[in-house]
Amino acid sequence: MNPNVFWRVLIAPCLVTMLLAFCIGPAQASIQDQPIDFCANKLTGFIRTSHRLPCSSNENSLGLNALEPGLVRPKKLDRQLVARFNAARARAKANGFELLITSGWRSVRHQQLMYERAVVKYGSDREARRWVLPADESLHTWGLAVDIRFANRSGAALRWFKKYSYRFGLCRVYKNEWWHFEPNVSPGQKCSAPR
């Protein structure tokens, strides 16, 4: 048998198979180890990964990944964003802070009106965009953004929330808007720096 054929037909495929098995492990084990959801206790806000079963009745699903717009615009906040916020609120309460939503879902019409008013107020589209996005760009119109505030101890609460919000899959998106958070990471995944 030709040595090149022997290598290509018999040896190379075996080496590739062994290398893949070594690097990624058996397929069965990797499937079982992958979480299917993040579940948050409704009372405490403690989060756990779910590997085989859905969240229990005393837990809320936080989803597994960053939350993204669907095919149809909703008329309320995304349910998993609400679950993420509620988990954060429960943990904040345990730390002595009261976390509130000041603004969440907005209709396209309302968001566009806010943007148009900002253009008049700030004198240009560029300056207005620092504070309000047009309706077709804002995740508020998709129910995937919340503006928050703290009812008490706002300085300490803000420091706490900035430090731990990623654990709930919530990220501060803009440098100039400390109050605006979006569910753009998986719970526990570190957030990108605000832009």
Description:
The structure is a single chain. The chain has 195 residues and is of the alpha+beta class. The protein has helices spanning 3-24, 27-33, 79-94, 108-122, 125-128, 154-164, and strands at 37-41, 47-50, 59-61, 99-103, 146-150, 171-174, 177-182. The strands form 2 sheets. It has a 4-stranded antiparallel beta sheet with strand order 4-5-7-6. The radius of gyration is 23 Å and the shape is globular. Mean pLDDT is 86; it is low at 5-10 and 12-29.
Structural class: alpha+beta
Total helix count? Answer: 6
Main β-sheet, spatial strand arrangement: 4-5-7-6
Helix content estimate: 25-40%
Q: How large is the radius of gyration?
A: 23 Å
State mean pLDDT (0 to 100 scale). 86
Distance between the termini: 63 Å
Bin the strand percentage: 15-25%
Summarize the main sheet: 4 strands, antiparallel
Unreliable stretches (pLDDT < 50, length at least 5) are 5-10, 12-29
Order of helices and strands: HHEEEHEHHEHEE
**Mass-distribution shape:** globular
How many beta-strand runs? Answer: 7
Write the SSE topology:
Elements: H1 3-24, H2 27-33, E1 37-41, E2 47-50, E3 59-61, H3 79-94, E4 99-103, H4 108-122, H5 125-128, E5 146-150, H6 154-164, E6 171-174, E7 177-182
Antiparallel strand pairs: 1-2, 1-3, 4-5, 5-7, 6-7
How would you summarize this macromolecular structure in one to three sentences?
The chain is an alpha+beta fold and 195 residues long. The chain has six helices and seven strands, in the order H-H-E-E-E-H-E-H-H-E-H-E-E. The chain starts with a helix and ends in a 13-residue tail after the last strand.
